[in-house]
Structures are given as C-alpha cells and as structure tokens.
Specification:
The chain is of the alpha+beta class. The protein has one domain: Alpha-Beta Complex (Nucleoside Triphosphate Pyrophosphohydrolase). The protein contains four helices and nine strands; from the N terminus they run ββββαββαβββαα. Strands 3, 4, 5, 6, 7, 8 and 9 form a seven-stranded mixed sheet that branches. The longest helix has 13 residues. The two termini are about 30 Å apart. The mean pLDDT is about 90.
C-alpha cells in the first residue's frame, strides 16, 4: 500500500508560558566564571534520542523516513516542512535504548528485527549550544522477510523512502531535500557496510 503524507497547516504558535510542554522545557542558566563575569544562557531540556540507519540489503537501499516537521514548516515555509531523515525516536521509556531503536524501526518502517541485529555506532551529544541532548546511533540490516503487515503500526504520518546505495550522495545533495546532521553522519558511517 502506497502511503503519502497528509497535508498539514500550522494553526497557531504558542509560547511555553501558554502551553505545558510534553517533552521539553526552557531554562535560563545563570553562571559565573572564575573572573567574576556572570552570564545567562537559555537552554532547552530535551530527552535523549535514538537514531537508526536502516540498510535494506536485499535491494541494496538505505531506508529513511519522510515526514512533516513543524519547526521546519514554521521557520522555512518554502520547504512545506517535509524532511527526509533516519528512523528516530525519543527515549521515553525505562528500557535499553537498543530496545527503543527496535520499536522505532517497527513503528516507523514496519520491519521487525531482533535487538541482536542492531549495532551501536556511536553516542553523541547534539544541540550543544541549546540542549546538549544525548543521541544514541544505531545501524541495522533488513530484508523483505522482516516486513510486518500491520497498518495499525503506522500511527505517525511517516512514509518510508528507499534510496539505492549508488544514489545516496546525489539524493542528499539536492537542494530540495531537507535533512539533519545526524542522518548525514550515519550515512557516512554506514558506507563501510555497503
């Protein structure tokens, strides 16, 4: 079944004071250097995340997700908010991050893989100047045999995008593709497996 993103329209933007946030909050951090200089820094408390690059080895493609990202839509309306990125999710449960990665692969892309088939690539901190969120990066290989036929999995408005190995660089160099630095990093790290 072919999936397409549903049309999204921003109705209103509220400040944090007008709405209780679900995942993040903003703090003002007041600090003082040893020479007495005092400064204030705004920081977002954001949860840890997992990012997974998915290699579909039977068709020699990497699998990404296409979805609408509201901050991109608001700040860069000419993009329509459409982003292509790695499968990812927020660490919002008290289970190992590799298990959260496994759940995200199943929920976003429809592949059921065991955690022993998911490799840890790296753990980094992102958004150093505003959040310092910890990001766990993973790699997995899938085939058609791993597909789960369950449309209820796809609650999020996400479309899988399959990019052949040979077209990866050209695809992501296009000015029409909006992506993130984590996806680009994982693509480079994955080239050794292709």
């Amino acid at each position: 079944m072919k999936r397409t993103n549903k049309k999204v329209t921003i109705k209103e933007v509220k400040t944090q004071e007008e709405r209780t946030p679900k995942f993040m909050s903003i703090n003002s951090i007041i600090a003082e250097r040893e020479d007495g200089y005092e400064f204030i820094w705004e920081a977002i408390n954001f949860p840890e995340t997992v990012h997974i690059i998915v290699n579909k080895v039977d068709s020699k493609e990497l699998v990404f997700v296409k979805q609408i990202r509201l901050p991109i839509m608001k700040n860069y309306p000419n993009t329509g908010g459409v982003c292509i990125e790695c499968c990812a999710g927020v660490v919002d449960k008290s289970i190992p991050t590799i298990e959260i990665a496994r759940e995200e692969i199943k929920e976003e892309l429809g592949y059921d893989v065991t955690s022993d088939r998911i490799r840890h690539i790296n753990t980094v901190y992102s958004g150093l100047g505003f959040s310092g969120s910890k990001t766990y990066m993973y790699y997995t290989e899938v085939t058609d045999a791993d597909i789960v036929e369950d449309e209820e999995l796809f609650e999020e408005d996400i479309i899988p995008i399959f990019v052949p190995y040979k077209d990866i660089d050209k695809f992501f160099q296009s000015d029409e593709i909006v992506t993130d630095s984590t996806t680009m990093y994982l693509i480079e790290k994955t080239k050794e497996y292709l």
